[in-house]
Amino acid sequence: HAALAFGRAANYSKWTGWARAGFAPAIASYPGAECGQGFLHTLFYKPGSPKVQDAWAAAGLPGGYPSDIIDLCVWNYQLSGRCEDGFQCARVRAHHKPAQPGSDPNECLKEPDPDDLGQAGASA
Asked: Cα 14 vs. chain centroid, distance in angstroms?
């Protein structure tokens, strides 16, 4: 409910971010700031924003919701350089990048959804 309330109330600006809450700890806009990554970062890590406060209050959580940084390699896998040596790709639960092989032979590549295989020529 908080995300819906925030989405209804907050606009994005490439100069001030979501709901004018800024980009800290980044100095300026960053890749993904304008979409889900920046939206959720603002909602969870900008408690001083009046629109964030209003969104949490609308969800019945006027003090917000406690948040913490999660393991980037497991929950938002992007590239192997951010993971410890020997990271097991089977641990990935949310996969952002890459879709194609790069220079690291240990890179965890996205795999096609088994439900989508063979569906390209199917019609509804």
From this structure: 17
d(CA 113, CA 107): 18
Give this prediction's pTM: 0.65
What pairs with residue 18 in β-bridges?
Answer: 12
- What pLDDT, in 10s, does the model give residues 41-59? 999 999 999 999 999 999 9
The token pair that represents 98 in the structure block: 């890459």
Range from 10-19, 95-104, 110-119 carrying the lowest mean pLDDT: 110-119
Tokens of 23: 């980009």
Q: What is the dihedral of CA 35, 1, 49, 15, to 10 degrees?
A: 20
Residue pointed to by tokens 């995300």: 3
| Dist. CA 107–CA 10, nearest whole Å | 36
